[in-house]
Specification:
By secondary structure, the chain is mainly alpha-helical. It has two domains: about 50 residues, no CATH class; about 60 residues, no CATH class. The protein is built from five helices and two strands. It has a two-stranded antiparallel ribbon. The longest helix is centred in the middle third of the chain and has 29 residues. The radius of gyration is 31 Å and the shape is elongated. The relative contact order is 0.05.
Amino acid sequence: MPSQEQKKAKTININLTESEYEKVKQLAEIRNLNPTAYTRLVALGNRIKPTVVEISSSQMTMDTNEDVEDLKSQAQANANANAYYANMFKRFASYIEDDRFYINLHNVQSDRELIQAIHQIKKE
């Protein structure tokens, strides 16, 4: 039996539009609560488990083939750029002397392709 302190002595009524009530009801159902319990917990600032929104397959939209192909080509371009930068880094790293962690700048300066790549990266 609840103690005198735990008894609910006051009532607060709120008026909601139909859409507001449906939203509260859905959020409460996700958390296995009724709308009243959910509203009380939220109003009192209690942290309740986060909302997990599930989208039905009928609500999902499929991009056009053109959009998908654009995304694929962008991803391929990014992969190519990343491979290029990784290759240039490896090329630069090859000028590092392992025993003293010394960069042989004379050899770096004579590698025209690497120097051009470094200048291009600086511009980007």
